[in-house]
Structures are given as structure tokens and as C-alpha cells.
């Protein structure tokens, strides 16, 4: 670390996090060195690190540098990244943080593994309490930013090229494809084999196809790939509202807490190489989240959040009206949540398949009452993935 000894040495359950706050090093009285709020802000970082460590569960080291805080309250709330080796190129890499955390090898001694900058000009909620509607949750944003540093980020520009280290992409990039199943980067050479228009959604969107994430989501998970391209956001996040409140959606709105990864995100971490992260076999998922009893409102709410977008995506193509598809989604989920005791795990049939079968049946009943106005050209999608 070039900026002096770690100001805080955080030994979480497994990984040792050496954290330098430039604000503290410079004793500048702002941000993390704020005389009133600095200690609480640093403690919030500790909470974020503890949470991440509880998931990644690796025994290595991670050097984090918090650069001098911004105070202007404009632009990004916070930004973070890690470093990548330039050779051999082209190829895929998770960057220095991943290597240091998973192997203990420091790729660039004297340099941080993850660098973060926070703009404290925004209205932040510090600590683990609930943010007010006007506050941005620092803990949520710190988990989000540090996760970029772990390697959940794309190195691509809007042309499919890495503008910083040509030819080097992340393992996250490696698992990105279009919704139509076309590869974006060759799995071996890391050469861009797609079209730039695909990076802004023109081939049925962009999806993450890592096997653990797909297992958790039930199909390739949608990636944020808007048109026009959004520098710093495109391709580095899961799509808005799709994965049930993912930490790695492109933005965290005021008043919103995203302090736990969704199962898709834990799966993605395993996919890119954090193999000590919990395996979310369907069975685990069932016992931890889906086996909820009567009166277990919190578990049901979480289950609802995990399923609502999945069910909506399944039934949406079957209806002309979005409102009607939403209505059917609600009906189907009500059915699911009130008949959980009837679900029987079977090796050949996954829970999500059972849910989607209920969704399709609910939609069909609606058809009987009311003739569909649009051919169900894509309804096979949700049946075939069940
Ligand atoms: Zn982000």
C-alpha cells in the first residue's frame, strides 16, 4: 500500500482486509475522517466487509484503499475497481483482489487490490439502521462497490473492447451472452466475437450464463445493457428489478437497502471463481428459503421477491396487456404461497419448474375466461424451461 500502513486491519472470519482511508492518512477532517461521522462510516465499511467475507469465505488477504472522499454530491455515489495484469493478453482475469483473496498472492505489492471513492456530498444513512426515504444506504452501496472490486464488473466499452488493457476481460465478461444465445467474447481467446449493437440489447438483451447463477435463477440472468450505452454501468450489473433485489443492480435508490446478495449473485461469485461461496444447490435453496410455514411472513415475502420477476417474465408474452400479465403474476404467486405444503421436492423437477407450471396454468385459466388477443408465440419459453 503506497499511502502508508493500514489504518484499520479487519480480520473477518476468513480473509484479512487491510484498509487504508486516505482521509485518515491525510487527517483532512472529511469523509472517513469526519470528526463526527468518520468512525461510524468506517464501521459501516467493516459491516460490509464482514458480510462479503461471510459469503466468499476465502482465507487470503485484501488491501482496500479508500481514496480522498468527494463532497460535491453529484455524479456517482461511489465507484470502485481493482487492477488487472496486462500480460498475457488477450485473456480473462478477475483482477488482483480475487488473486490476493483466493491465493494470498499479492500481484502488485505496494498497491491496493481494491480502490474505492465515496461522495459524502450525498445524504447517506450510516450504520445498520433503516435509511430514511431521502437517504442512500452506505452499507448497501459499500457491499455493491466492493463486489465490483471482487470481479463482478465488465471491462468492455461500447465496442466490445477493453480501453485500458486491450484484450483483457473479466470472467464475468466471459459468462456474458446475448439473450439469443450468441457469445460476446470467445471463451478461449477473449476476442470480441459479437456486434456492438448487442451490448445495448439488440440481440434479445444480454444475459449471464454462469452455471451456478443459472441454477439459482432458473435461466440465464438478465444483465443491464441499456441503449444508449451507459459508461460505468452497462454490462457490469444485473438488470433492474429482474433478479429480486440484487445488490448488483445498477443503482441503489434512496430509502432502499440491498444488504444481502440474491442467490443469483452468490451463484455468480461461485461462477467467476469464488468456489468457497456457498453452493446453492436447489435443495439448499428449498430448505433455506422455500420451506416456509404458515405465518412465516418474512420468508414468504422474500420468496415472493425472488419469484415475482421470474413469473412475470414467464407470463408476460402470453398477454397483450402488461397490466393483465401483472394481475396473473399476482394470482399465480398467491397460489404458490398458499400451497407450499403441496410441493414435493423431486430430483428431476426443480422448485422453479413447479412455480412456473402454476403460473402457466393460471394464465391458461385466464384465457378460458377471455380469448387472448395475441398469439402465444413465446409462451413455450416458460414451459420449456420448466
Ligand atoms: Zn455498480
Domains, number: 3
Our measurement of the CA-to-CA distance between the termini, rounded to an integer number of angstroms, reads: 50 Å
Please tally the β strands and state the result: 12
Cα radius of gyration in angstroms = 22 Å
Q: Largest beta sheet: what is the strand line-up?
A: 1-2-3-6-4
- Following the backbone from N to C, one meets helices and strands in this order, namely EEHHEEEHEEEHEHEEHEHHHHHH
Which cofactors or ions or other ligands sit in this model? zinc ion
Largest sheet, strands/sense/barrel: 5 strands, mixed
What spatial form do the alpha-carbon principal axes imply?
Answer: globular
Helix content: 25-40%
Number of DSSP helices?
Answer: 12
Rounded mean pLDDT is 84
Description:
This protein has three domains: 8-150, no CATH class; 171-272, no CATH class; 287-385, Rna Polymerase Sigma Factor, Chain: A (Orthogonal Bundle), CATH 1.10.1740. Residues 1-6, 281-292 and 371-386 have low confidence and may be disordered. The protein is globular and about 70 Å long. By secondary structure, the protein is α/β, with parallel strands linked by helices. 35% of the residues lie in helices and 11% in strands. The strands form four sheets. The chain has a five-stranded mixed beta sheet with strand order 1-2-3-6-4. A three-stranded antiparallel beta sheet has the order 10-11-12. It has helices at 22-26, 38-56, 96-103, 138-150, 171-174, 211-217, 263-272, 282-290, 297-315, 322-338, 351-369, 379-384, and strands spanning 8-11, 16-21, 61-66, 78-82, 91-92, 114-118, 124-125, 136-137, 168-169, 176-178, 206-208, 221-223.
